[in-house]
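Convert to structure. Protein one:
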Amino acid sequence: MWVDKGFKRWARISVLVLSMFVLANCASAPENDPEALAEYNTINDPVEPANRGIFEFNMFLDRALFRPVTALYRTIAPETLREFIHNFLQNLRTPVILANDLLQGEPSRGGTTTMRFLINSTIGVVGFGDPATSMGFEQHDEDFGQTLAVWGAGEGPYFMIPIFGPSNPRDAVGKVVDFFLDPINWWAGKEGLDSVLWGRTVMSGIDTRDQLWDVLDDLEKSSIDFYASIRSLYRQRRNDEITNGESLDDKPPPGFSGDFEIADPDQDPDQDLSQTKL
């Protein structure tokens, strides 16, 4: 059964995540130097040498494969077409975003997600267009890693995953859960359409690299330590996504007592410190 295959695939990833988590917890901290210990705890990257090695491997893959493929994609597809494809892929994520909106006790954002899907799937021609944004329904992204954070789960130590890049135990587990929350994965797996799963994964990867093209180039040129800059940007972006641009202290705990309302299109959208994904 496809669920068994999918479960085994993600179980292997979970074992890898757990192994790295254990390794991180076993790493020794500089106990005899208070300042070094404080910096060590702030960075929260206890297996940094291994992470840097994986980062260099990922950079090698990027230069040898991902960047050239994306460069070809950017050459063949004009910017407007690439934007249409990005919109379509984002629209496909609606069920996962909506599920996490509701799990986080955000019915208003869930209403916005629903309206975006209805508008973009019809007027926007199955999601290739994004008229919902021009109508005041701003796009936002949610995932189960953010849901775990809203419900109080700590991020755990920072680590790099081969190919996939920056993460932590909370976000890695969130990716596994999101895989099973996505009805397209269930449908394609049940019908034996592995090509749909792989095709969407590859296209999403190319689209993500395209969205990050200028960001990564500028960051690499301006950074003294590219690895540390990526680590810092990843954490800032994730914290901003988790709090919806608010201070963590000001964000109320999740609840389900509110009405299922659509966010006011005239209201200023949440400030988004980073529109990119790493």
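Protein two, convert as well:
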Amino acid sequence: MDNFSTLWLYENKAMARVKGQKSLILVQAPNGLYKEIKEFGHGKIAFKFKLGTEPCRVETVNSVNGTSFVIRKLMHDLKPLDELGVPQKITQRLLEPKLSGLVIFAGLQGVGKTTLGSSLLVERIRKFGGSAQVLEDPPELDLDNILENGVIQQIDVHERNNVNVRSDEELGYYASRALRADTDIVYLGEVLRPAEAKEVVTHSGNGALIITTIHGSSVSLALERLINLAGPNSEFMLSTTLTAVIYLTVKTMDSGKRIMHITPLFCDSPAVRIAIREKNFSITENYAQQQANLILTGN
């Protein structure tokens, strides 16, 4: 059972997903685990739990047949960007000492957006020091840590004061508090709703580095989605504060090995910023492809 990535735990049985596989298998859960988790969670919808030495995220599911728990292991030993397959030229740009503004990791579900965004945050704190706050609903990785010359504080927005239903204002509340607390990097979890999009755009021009993730099937569609969610005129602020969009795709080989491909859009030219401001998304896609080709050819 140690090799599972997600465990569906019922009172009398358990199903597990083995890492890298889609189908589930019936497994024998440790005696007393269901009762332990039920008591530990105190009726919460979602909470962190340590299964042995493994940090996990637990979601409570109240279905027609009773209460069950979905237990997902949280990654807690992140590799550096270059070891995750990020090309050296992109890594160098993302690790520039004075990097600020908004960096977006985009792509479809399961391509590694959260992993790369979190790796960037951890690597920058390790390299340059300083403070970071991670604001998520819910947390996907175990990032809360005190490092040699910096600190990462991870906040579960979902569980403020043990309240299970969050309001649209909570993310903005925590983002504002983070920036008033002399925070160098703010990681705002995945943009899914208008409230999150507005906060990402609003706080991206304050001088700190803002990192976030968003779903999208291309660089241009990710930008279009963010602007549409954030609302009217958001393209004007985004055109001045966006630093980069890192778009990820993953191809699974016959051997099972996953190959990651990155299409970057670094917004360091006036032409790119004008295209964003004018919402000319096809042009932004062309610029992204040009930058990707330059990286591939080594120019």
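The radius of gyration is 20 Å. Residues 61 and 160 are 20 Å apart (CA to CA).
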